[in-house]
Amino acid sequence: MSVRARGLRVVVGGAVLLDGVDLDVAAGTWTCVLGRNGAGKSTLLHALAGLRRAAGTVELDGRDAATLRPRQRALTVALAPQAALLPPWLSVHDYALLGRTPHRGPLGAPGRHDHEIVAEAVDRLGLGSLATRAVGTLSGGERQRAVLARALAQEPSIMLLDEPTAALDLGHAQEALELVDALRLERGLTVVSALHDLTLAGQYAQALLLLDAGRAVISGPAAAVLTQDALAQHFSATAEVVALPGGGVRVTPVRPSRGP
Amino acid sequence: MGAAVGAVSLPLGPVVRTLLDQLPGISVSGGLTDLDSRILLDIRLPRVLLGALVGGLLATAGAAYQGVFRNPLADPYLLGAAAGAGLGATLVIVAAPAAATGPLGPLPVAAFTGALCGVGLAYVLGRAAERAGGGGAALVLAGVAVTAFLTAAQTFVLQANSEALQRVYGFVLGRLSGAGWDEVVLVVPYAVVSAVVLQLAARRLDVLAVGDDEAASLGVGPERVRLVVLLAASLATAAAVAVSGLIGFVGLVVPHVMRRLAGPGHAVLLPVCLLGGGAFVVLADLVARTALAPAELPLGVVTAFVGAPFFAALLARGARR
Question: Fewer CB within 10 A of the end CB, N or C, for chain A?
Fold first, then answer.
């Protein structure tokens, strides 16, 4: 399903968090939202998920999202938040099972089908051996994968990922992103994610959107967005950008030269 | 058993037979004297039933408050709900003693309003204290402050109307003495409504545990669930307080024990609390009636003997985490 946003504007307590952001994501593609801390990445994802009151419009698959009932929207869009609240007493399986909520009526108990889907999602994130462990006992990386498992169990067409690799080491980060990409290709999943690692963002996403102080400043393929000038202007960063053969770019921080 | 034991002790066998005899279609000879069977059917039985209802209501209300506030220390007594209901009920008893009967009379309505005001006040204060960095105990501290204030207001009303003191004394300490069929009839409709509403909201209450934003992203409106559950839990509290006064700690102890036994899912936890709370209060009432027989301890004293150390243990465990 495609995602299209026009003129998204979010104001909280007089502070403008998002200021007229447009976004176009074709069905089955991956778009990364970039920007320094506080640029509005999380706010944009929350607005797309319908969790922030925002001026402007969001269309999901050509349909105005404001007309969807909360449960319909939850059947379409899943959000894996950055700082998820995991009830420490729940087992990994039961936590991921919450992702099945929109698929059941408000009263319905989870059925065998729900448990199978959850078990598969938990397995795919490599948590199969931890399924009965309480989430309170997991490491940071395992918790993050549990949140992804829950979003996966929701079986959405559109997945919103807020810093899915923040607590993961490089190997686990690659593994998680590869998994999301595999699902994207398998199921035609549309992905919008915020990512800190610019090189990883360029490698996995077909399109990047750079936010600065709530405004969308540049969008397009990695080579167009991640330029030395853009990094200097919008991240106050000094970095060398090298185009990679498989598409994407490598961003290497450069220290200002000093005398010996 | 609660029906058999008491200041006048009745043998268990005949008690069971007499109770069976009351069921439609069953006729067995009880073997109790007329006086004994009057004691059983008009005094003991309504008291046991009322105890079970009150305990069940307080325990489910406690479990619901704990779920809604994501706070394991929430309890109708500690949150100010019970004190608010007590104040509301006291005002009605003092102002219009004749009107204070019947399920739709002003007594339960005033208790319900008082309970909502108590919880509302504690919640607002607790949120403010939490934002100021108070942590998870802030809500309970706010509730204790609200309880102290409302109880003081209640005492003031009582002292100013000392002729009502006798009638209202039981409220402050919690009691089931003097319970009759009237009280049972008063509480049953509220018990049914609140239990059904809470049961219907149980699965959405589970989802609330992951936080408001995520609950919303799963299609569950957190504000609406919270409002419905708060209303139902406060209704349960008010109904219990209106007939039995302030019985503390049932809503704290029972849900914690039941969560251990039945797991954290509210769809199972809430009905289990209804049963467990009922059993707990009937048992506590048994102790209240017999410990100093023929004198009676207020029921609230017995539950506090069990509940207060339990509460202290919960606090200590929370502090270590």
Answer: C
